[in-house]
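Human: My hope is that you can spare some time for a protein that puzzles me. I am handing you a single protein, as its sequence and its fold in token form. Could you go through the record with me and say what the backbone is doing? Take your time, and here it is.
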Amino acid sequence: MTIMFVTRNDIIPSLLRIEKMHDIQYVSESYHTEEQIPTYYSALDIPNIGIATSESLLMSNSYIIMPKNSLYHTDISHRYTPHAFLEYHINISKNLDFVSISFGGLYPHKNDNVFIGSGIVYFRGATEKAKELYRPYGKYLTRSFVTIKDWRNRPWKVGPEALELLRNGMRFITDNDIYDHPDYRHHDLQLPEKYK
């Protein structure tokens, strides 16, 4: 697993380089009311890279990366609100040949923006195909990034543009649901002296 703080400009060049090496597609992990799940053949076409669509760490704007024209398993959920309807989504635990990527980024919180982390991962029980698919991301995606450890000693890869945001005092959130609690500010990613 690679966890990172990246802007669109930090991550797009590496994704495009990997796309030239491997024929892949990105399939949305979100819930959709249409059976045809949004699929993109280039990172350039994915909406909202660099803008977090959820405050949930490593869950925002998530996609499954898979070879083009791959078959995948879709789950169907029954939603009961004033009107009953079906929702379709991909469950990564039933698609263990593939890799999951989430695009965090800026997230509006009250009167300010915070920065939500991104990640790329294959899951426990993943097949050799998934591990092979992950390899170029582990090798190329964060090559020019710096590594900053959080309060748990987890290494976060931080892209050059994201690093400037951290230098300028933006909060980089490393846990869920702690935005307003003053005791948890020390959980934010802290800029080491050597990067100031």
The longest helix spans residues 8-21. Helices lie at 8-21, 128-140, 160-167. The chain has a mean pLDDT of 87. The CA atoms of residues 131 and 166 lie 32 Å apart.
